[in-house]
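WARN  no MSA supplied for this record, continuing single-sequence
INFO  ligand: magnesium ion
INFO  echoing inputs
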Amino acid sequence: MAKEKGVKEIEDLPGIGPTTAEKLKAAGYETIDRIAASTPSELSDITGMSLEAAKKAVDAAKQATTLEFSTASEIFETRKSLGRISTCASSLDEMLGGGVEAKGITEVYGKFASGKTQLGFQLCVNVQQPVDKGGLDGTVLFIDTEGTFRPERIESIAKAAGMDPKKALENIIVVRANTSDQQILAVERADKTIKERNIKLIVVDSLMSLFRSEYPGRGALGERQQKLNAHIHKLQSLADTHGLAVYITNQVMDNPAILFGDPTTPVGGNIVAHAATTRLYMRKSKEEKRIVRLVDSPSMPEAEAVIKITPNGIRD
Ligand code: GTP
Ligand code: MG
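INFO  complex generated
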């Protein structure tokens, strides 16, 4: 919360006049806290102000910001009221502690046709439901990096959920990203749309495919991971700021270091592993059945759930 010294609006910061403030607001930098959490180079990129001036503004914003300290029991109360999106499979919802949680990043990795995209479609529909029906009463930003978004699937899933399929489609904003830069920009510029459209779910399907193809080989790894880190960081900050859920799908590779057991490992390395609040591993079973394993969660034990991909969407 920003207080102190009469600094309340971003216009009260040194070096930020009306024009600069307009530019910042248009980019979603609307509060003192937001400026305090930014880097000078970010601000300078957006506004064209010098790095020095930007640093002064950030420092002043930091000074005007007082962090709130909470007791664990207060946090417990807040966490209990955290929104969750139902997956339409009760076993999977239960394993997740009630569904895919808001304010966090849920990652699903698995081989092709394991159902990662289908689960994403189901969430796109369910998030639109009212809270008592397992939704967050919000809309969706879908970042499609593989060209696999299928409106006709959304239509079937929405119909099966008893919703108006036309409305369901209207409530999903799709960005087709052809390069990792477009993928990054889609997230960087999302603040305004998120507010205007009450977006409660961001889907990135898939997180790594463009990064992998554009940065091949060991030589490019450092730069790739750096960009990826900033990208994921931004996703997490949107989740926190707007109380929305982030669902990312991820590809896999066989890890040769694993001699016994399943060598399937998600790509993206430590950066993705650490950023994902909840990690799920999805694999094919017989026919329409899929096994979902909870690999990593802040509060739930490791477990498995069996779901089905039906014409109506995800089911038990
Ligand atoms: P990649 O993106 O290739 O890595 O795979 P993915 O994990 O995203 O797989 P996806 O979610 O696309 O799942 C594909 C599987 O879902 C197919 O093999 C089908 O079994 C099932 N599926 C896809 N569309 C339909 C549909 O319209 N009806 C039904 N019943 N199943 C479908
Ligand atoms: Mg897919």
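The mean pLDDT is 93.
INFO  checksum written, moving to next record
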